[in-house]
Specification:
Blueprint lengths: L3 E5 L2 E2 L8 E2 L2 E5 L2 E6 L9 E4 L4 E4 L1 E6 L16 H17 L2 E6 L5 H8 L7 E4 L4 E2 L22 H4 L2 E2 L2 H14 L5 E4 L18 H13 L4 E7 H9 L4 E7 L2 H10 L2 E3 L2 H10 L7 H24 L19 H6 L5 H15 L17 E4 L19 E4 L2 E5 L2
Parallel strand pairs: 1-6, 2-7, 8-9, 9-10, 11-12, 13-14, 14-15, 15-16
Antiparallel strand pairs: 1-4, 2-3, 4-5, 7-17, 17-18, 18-19
Helix pairs in contact: 4-5, 6-7, 7-9, 8-9
Length: 411
Amino acid sequence: MAASYLFHGGRVLDPRRDTLAEGIEVLTEGDRIKEVADRPISAAAAARIDLKGRTLMPGLIDAHIHLLLAEVNLHLLDGVPLTLLAAKGAASAKAMLMRGFTTVRDTGGADFGIKLALETGLFEGPRLFISGAPISQTGGHGDFRLRTQTAFECACCSGVAFAARVADGVPEVLKAVRDELRKGADQIKLMVSGGVASQADPLESLQFRIDEIEAAVEEATRWGRYVCAHAYAAEAVGRAVAAGVRTIEHGNLIDAPTAQLMAERGAYLVPTLVTYDAMRRRGPDYGMSAYSLEKNQIVLEAGLRSLELARAAGVKIGFGTDLLGPLQDDHCREFLIRAEIMRPIDIVRSATIVNAEIVRQPGRLGEIAPGAFADLLVVDGDPLGDLGLFQDQGAHLPAIMKGGVFVKNAL
């Protein structure tokens, strides 16, 4: 018989409401939420969980992570075997789960192997949506070859080759997209502008021709998938959205007209503000180049402004972090950085119901409702009154449930 739990005696954070709800009981059965009621629920077979005034809320979702990018300076991945990357990825996945993230979307690097390991319980970690290898043009943000190299080492010997794929022209882009879909990608990742970590491309550069982006979008759509795009400059974002890209990753340098275009096309923005903060503070200690640090400062200073422009235009804003390797212990600082201009409930919505839409699981993830997955957190206090409760590596989360199973229970 499937395990069943009845949560009572506390408050419930429903992301669709502005305040916590009192007197709500929640019944789970198997991997789903069976009933939510503002009265006592009759469930004689269920184990009763007394919250003792604590807050019950949905598990968090991060829509931009990299499980296998274990170095801040990505060139240090060259020569790192995939077995070591998988081991480090397993440790990262468990740490994310223990911070309350029961679902994550990997936007470059993780493959069906690590996804299957998580699904079957070989690794303990969040539910995972994968992009496979991100696709870049020659010389683009995902082309991490040194200027002295003409080719990547084989992927079996080099982590950096595993986490990037170069394609030029519509036929190569189509083949790359089809191949990543064949290998199980839940979404396709394109690099359509320069980036912070790459050493050969200006931040404002426009990458891929419009016909290449359109080809990737059409192919992903025909497969029932979608395209997410790394983009900073307003023009790069606009080109991608006009070509049908569904989610824009980062978007720090957008302007008001571009934000309006995103809203009109129904595109999502997934800011990753904490990564620039962490790289400014800690990047030099992990080998970030002066060139990357210079570009990082530009996007750092523009980050909050991009959120303001997106909100004003009515763009739906997701929650992402993009932290690499050892910087991932700054994971939940994203809540504090956004709090400078956003209400706590709106930040929580980004990390729950909006991200559930991004991974195409509305009603199943990111909320407490009948039929949703039983991904639940118990919080020592009111997270809408104190976002610090998400800090300290999950220390203020005495219980974490994923798919109806407690992965942590100190109640």
